[in-house]
Amino acid sequence: MAWGNPNRERRVLKAGHSSIAVTLPKPWAEAMNLRPGDLIVFDQNDDGTLYLKPAPPPTGDVPVAPFVVQARSFDTPGVLARLIVGAYRVGHDAIEIRADVPLAPERIEELHQAARGLLGVSLVAQEPNRVVLQNFIDPSKYGLPQLVQRVRMILLAFLEEMEDVVQKRARSRRLGTLEEESAKVLALLVRQLFLASRDWSLARRIGSPDPRQLLEWRVVVHALEELADLFGATLRTLNEDAPRLPDAGASALCEYLPELKDQMKGVFDALVRPSLDRACEVYNQGTQRANALPLGNGRGRGARPPASVRTATLLLERGAGCLTLLARIAIDRAVAGGTDTILVEAA
């Protein structure tokens, strides 16, 4: 992007008898759609730096055109829900669905379910051929670190449910609730990143003072989405065979799940509070655990575990891989911050 250009110096110019001025980079002005005569607002930071952005519309209440989806009909199940989720994730507040023929009751119910699955979204207008959904969330109230910590709590709840299933041989009743909650928070996280990429002032307010960090945050959110999918699939797999889990497989899972929880807590702590020493520590711990997984896949002594245990093992191993990726990102964030130095022992 334009801000990445290394030539960021501007000479101070004289403007009139007693004023001075600095020109704005042309790529930035074009990206912000600025024209001569437009207003710029700025914030002064504690260190004396200035943060610029285009001024909002004068009235502050200029209506924003909704995102409109129009088709002859919506017959394929799931398409409407995915359109709503996609429009929400990329930052649209008002979403309008139009059809040439009346929407079937099944599609109306699909729209209601999609709205219930997104934080802050309500269905505000409904006609036979037209439905409008509106988002009421203030993006400045949801910081990236806080949302990531919320995802951490949900992922820990997944692991705790897995422990209950293998210990009690009873199916979890929270699977659907946890999947729905994780989908809501992750969709909001993606939405926040899209909005912040278009408003650097918002990016700073929600925890990304340097716009270049937004790409890093997107990788983090992608890994969190993968973790939620993997943990949901693991719990679903264990649920299907809960009463018939063998002692050996359940024992191995009970041994590994607490270690995975500890690893995840350390990784999230290093992500939210970057520290090079802590990030290197959790990365090293994750690598060691990956090389010595106690679960196995049936090789070696003992009978081959049932399919449910093998599948759960593979899913958890992939989850551990996602945590290792997040640990790498935590190291990158700590190095970019440049706040501390550690001594690493040679092998």
Commentary on this structure:
The chain is 53% helix and 12% strand. The protein has 347 residues and is α+β, with helices and mostly antiparallel strands. It has three domains: 2-54, Pemi-like Protein 1, Chain: D (Ribbon), CATH 2.10.260; 67-135, YhbY-like (Translation Initiation Factor IF3), CATH 3.30.110; 140-337, Methane Monooxygenase Hydroxylase, Chain G, domain 1 (Up-down Bundle). A four-stranded mixed sheet has the order 5-6-8-7, with helices on one face. A two-stranded antiparallel ribbon has the order 1-2. Helix 4 packs antiparallel against helix 8 and helix 9 runs antiparallel to helix 10 (307-337). Residues 1-6 and 297-301 have low confidence and may be disordered.
Keywords:
347 residues; four-stranded mixed beta sheet; disordered N terminus; single chain; Methane Monooxygenase Hydroxylase, Chain G, domain 1; 10 helices; Pemi-like Protein 1, Chain: D; alpha+beta; flat; two-stranded antiparallel sheet; 8 strands
